[in-house]
Amino acid sequence: MAQMIPAPTAAVFDALSTDIADRLRELRRLILATAQENPDVGPLEETLKWGEPAYLTSASRSGTTIRINAYRKSDTRYALLVHCQTDLVDRYKQLYGEILTFEGRRAIIFDVAEPLPREAVKHCIAMALTYHQRVAS
Fold first, then answer.
1. What DSSP state is assigned to residue 32?
2. Is there a contact between 132 and 100 (Cβ–Cβ < 8 Å)?
3. What number of CA atoms fall less than 13 Å from residue 53's CA on the CB side?
4. What is the pLDDT of residue 135?
5. Nearest-angstrom CA–CA distance, 40 and 119
6. 29 in helix, strand or coil?
7. Which among 49, 54, 104, 120 is placed 20 to 30 Å from 31, CA to CA?
8. What is the pTM of this model?
9. pLDDT tens figures, 69-124
10. What letters, b where the CB count within 10 A reaches 16 and e where it falls short, cover 8-36?
């Protein structure tokens, strides 16, 4: 069963082009499913950070915040963002540099014309959701 989208997140999606909103909903489902598959992550807090849908591991504190949104107000590009002071994007580049597109130390950039590389993105999400576990060990 799909989890209800909170009103603030739905409002962000509703303000975007249909193509971008559909892709962000897909990313949202993947984030929630990835969290649910890992008992160490626990429930996610879904909120807005900087006006963007954000997913926090508030209960377990296992990971860093993930945000999703249109990329620079584009109607064709969207992004999954992590905290820029982590090494996550560097690690993503090492693993998926041939598959994914990145910006700096903060974002994975996608285009609506391209299929979402689900397995690679799911792994990146899992790494973000367990980031503090890895750092602490």
1. H
2. no
3. 30
4. 53
5. 20
6. helix
7. 104
8. 0.93
9. 999 888 899 999 999 999 999 999 999 999 999 999 999 999 999 999 999 999 99
10. ebeebbeebeeebbebbbbbbebbbebbe
What sign does the dihedral 59-11-33-81 (CA atoms) show?
A: negative
Alpha-carbon distance of 113 to 96, in angstroms, equals 19
Torsion angle of C-alpha atoms 114, 115, 119, 120, degrees rounded to 10: 10
> What is the identity of the amino acid at 132?
H
d(CA 62, CA 104): 23
Residue 65 has pLDDT above 70, yes or no: yes
DSSP string covering 57-96, please?
A: -TTT--S--EEEEESTT-SSEEEEEE-TTSSHHHHHHHHH
